[in-house]
């Protein structure tokens, strides 16, 4: 609402400007615009006030006076837009609040601490491109010597990916007490995913079990971005073997168990496609370029390596994450 | 003064009727003591309601009436048609929807300009919108 | 952008109005306001155009001309608000699109058909208050004679409730092959919910198994709104017995198995609190009032009864759903 | 004509400096052939950038310069300070945030009024904002 004192202030502003037009009054006018908006003065009220203010400053010709009726009438529609901003803003804020809760809930799906075994370093970096991530990873301790490891990427947008992720988490969680091999686990999850999610959605996953005594990693892959194995003795990065249908595609997919044994200094790098899809000057990063980046960060703790690689790749893609990013580094010391 | 102005009902069948309804609404709101901005907002609301009738129902009526409740004076607009009705009122009252220019266009704007807004509509049974703008307590001697 | 022809039209409108002010020009002005907004003419451009138009209509006094510099400067801030509407709108539309996908995904969590056994009618009405529901129900066939039934209500807002719901679905789904009693199932789900969701969230649930041969319903309850049992012989509605801690509250909650046997004409009504929380003139509906409503809809097919009750309660609450609404009607014929 | 106007740098230390910067920007944009509305928008953008310096960094500079790229003439504003920096730029560029009046206020509005917008800022290292408004191809004889 336009108050009397506001109107007086506006007349004074106009009078000052007429007495000696200067940038300072224009600056003040701009600040006043902010103030008026903050006090919810609608644009039609502003025009109306302007028309009234003119009467106090001189002899207003009849045609100018009458023209303000038209301008006000046109401005009413601008006023409607102005009034709609409130509802947009409040609906948006409500949605943001919901997303914040969902985000917190999603955080609880991820492990709050990493397994700690002698002779093995673990590093993880997992960053959502937007508020809600479609990447999932988990570590579950099986016994004194072994832990299970899941890395997965769910297609599609944030909210439905998050719903699917929580399904996966519960499904794996409710099967933790059964002694399933990696291939059996994927077969099981494939059926559950297929039954419960939209045919247009699917999940890629690597599920494995790491024996910290033998330093043997047994895993199976469901259409997931291949990881890397670094052989310290040779100084070479190899692609991790393993194929298999993505989860949720065919009901009877079979998965194969793969096995690698880590020697001292060897490194396992597991990731989602968000790592390789970092854009470098509009081109996706090639896997051999990624290897060059990894080679530059060898010889440090697994977590330090994961952090350093994230920073390198983020800078390459000009600080823009196009997809959720997850990298897990396992390093036998 | 307002006693001298009773409710008026305008048939909406041509675009010219919209102008007539606006004129009646503007005059009555002036007589009821509404300021120029509110007169324009009331005319705009009448436009929106009448255009919805004209464009989507073909014909209907707008009734403009002074109203008193709890000693407060106001203006009430009632738009009635026997047109196709609005299938999803919840949606019609959303901002995004109204910009598409479909049946119900402008209704969110009307709701925000007025103090009270009520709509009844179902497919095949037509639409009835009642809105009220309050002006303040009845002054003595009025 | 303001075009020349637009400006000419505006001058013409003003001129017509000045020659004989009438409501028709004001109507046209309002329509023009809509048109200008649709063509993205900002409010400062409109004021500027108005100032220029005046010059064509008569001798504009210097103070009026100068005053438009101030008005335009103030209007720039209104222009910023105008420009922000686009981004609000597009962000909102993006969010709506995400929610639509999530909604479709959520639909897949619910059963797409009801069990069909001789001698038993089943009716369900489940309506979300907003886009995403926090109510969950499911039927799972166990064998030729028995099916499992879940009704649950998840606290909290849409997105996180949907995430939790998909967890529950997967958890139950992955346990379907194990022969768990209702009490064991709730004990199991309680542990899973407690481990995985925020302490501020919880789930109320009724889980049961219906034997269509014996017409015996064995169930357990976790803090869920009590259902009703209608005894046809007596013509009386009873509250369904059964208590138990909500899921996710304490890790070691125990649940008790309840058992009811349906005679011919008896009706079981299971629901969520959205049914009883229908507001009637600002007051929540009391359970005895609900019974009155149910009594008025006896003697029809279970689905018809569920539909009729929904329509009654919706009308009572003036077509406003404050909470998700779910009612399941089981009627022995 | 534009060759005669070179870049100008204004130190921002007091509120009066904001007015000076606006004046320089308005004059230069007029000389570059921008219309009155754009002159006002440029002045507003300068205000926002300068006020952020004045209110949150204490001091800094605004550089206003004609710019030519691919035969197109424009105006470039560069705001530099050594203040506390913006911790979360992504957030500062959101509309909801800017209304709170915190550091970065008004930046979304500036981005929408200008054609190009670039910001570099990190806590402890200050902030640097570069914006450009294009006016069109260089006219002959200019
Ligand atoms: Mn993904
Ligand atoms: Mn991905
Ligand atoms: Mn709920
Ligand atoms: Mn509820």
TrEMBL record, chains A, C:
The keyword Hydrolase applies. This is Phosphoserine phosphatase. InterPro entries: Bact_Sigma-Reg, KaiA/RbsU_helical_domain_sf, PPM-type-like_dom_sf, PPM-type_phosphatase-like_dom, PSer_Pase_RsbU_N. It comes from the Bacteria. SMART domains: PP2C_SIG. Keywords: Hydrolase. The keyword Hydrolase applies. It holds the Pfam family RsbU_N. GO terms for molecular function: phosphatase activity. Residues 117-332 form the PPM-type phosphatase domain. Gene3D superfamilies: KaiA/RbsU domain, PPM-type phosphatase domain.
From TrEMBL, chains B, D:
It comes from the Bacteria. Pfam families: HATPase_c. Residues 40-131 form the Histidine kinase/HSP90-like ATPase domain. InterPro entries: HATPase_C_sf, HATPase_dom. This is Anti-sigma regulatory factor. It comes from Brevibacillus gelatini.
């Amino acid at each position: 609402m336009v108050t009397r004192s506001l109107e007086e202030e506006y007349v004074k502003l106009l009078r000052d400007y007429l007495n000696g037009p200067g940038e300072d009054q224009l600056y003040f006018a701009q600040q006043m615009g902010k103030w008026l908006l903050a006090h919810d003065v609608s644009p039609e009220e502003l025009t109306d006030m302007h028309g009234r203010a003119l009467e106090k400053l001189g002899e207003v010709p009849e045609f100018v006076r009458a023209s303000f009726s038209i301008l006000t009438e046109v401005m009413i529609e601008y006023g409607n837009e102005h009034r709609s901003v409130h509802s947009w803003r409040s609906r948006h804020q409500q949605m943001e609040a919901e997303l914040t809760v969902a985000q917190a809930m999603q955080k609880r799906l991820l492990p709050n601490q990493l397994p700690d075994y002698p002779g093995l370093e673990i590093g993880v970096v997992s960053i959502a491109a937007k508020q809600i991530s479609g990447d999932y990873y988990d570590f579950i301790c099986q016994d004194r010597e072994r832990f299970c490891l899941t890395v997965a990427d769910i297609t599609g947008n944030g909210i439905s990916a998050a719903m699917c992720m929580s399904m996966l988490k519960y499904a794996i969680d409710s099967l933790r007490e059964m002694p399933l091999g990696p291939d059996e686990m994927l077969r099981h999850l494939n059926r559950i995913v297929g039954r419960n999610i939209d045919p247009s959605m699917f999940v890629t996953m690597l599920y494995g079990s790491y024996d910290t005594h033998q330093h043997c990693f047994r895993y199976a892959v469901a259409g997931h971005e291949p990881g890397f194995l670094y052989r310290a003795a040779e100084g070479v990065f190899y692609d991790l073997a393993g194929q298999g249908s993505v989860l949720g595609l065919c009901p009877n997919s079979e998965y194969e168990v793969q096995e690698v044994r880590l020697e001292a200094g060897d490194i396992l790098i597991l990731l989602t496609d968000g790592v390789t899809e970092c854009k470098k000057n509009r081109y996706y990063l090639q896997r051999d370029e990624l290897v060059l980046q990894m080679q530059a960060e060898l010889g440090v703790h697994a977590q330090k390596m994961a952090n350093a690689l994230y920073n390198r790749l983020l800078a390459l893609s000009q600080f823009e994450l196009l997809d959720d990013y997850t990298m897990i580094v396992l390093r036998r010391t | 003064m307002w006693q001298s102005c009773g409710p008026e009902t305008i048939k909406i069948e041509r675009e010219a009727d919209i102008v007539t309804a606006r004129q009646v609404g503007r005059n009555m709101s002036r007589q009821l003591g509404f300021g120029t901005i509110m007169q324009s907002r009331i005319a705009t609301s009448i436009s929106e309601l009448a255009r919805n009738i004209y464009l989507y129902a073909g014909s209907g009526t707008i009734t403009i009436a002074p109203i008193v409740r709890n000693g407060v004076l106001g203006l009430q607009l009632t738009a009635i048609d026997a047109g196709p009705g609005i299938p999803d009122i919840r949606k019609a009252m959303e901002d995004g929807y109204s910009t598409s220019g479909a049946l119900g266009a402008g209704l969110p704007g009307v709701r925000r300009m007025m103090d009270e807004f009520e709509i009844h509509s179902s497919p095949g049974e037509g639409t009835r919108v009642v809105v009220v703008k309050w002006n303040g307590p009845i002054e003595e001697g009025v």
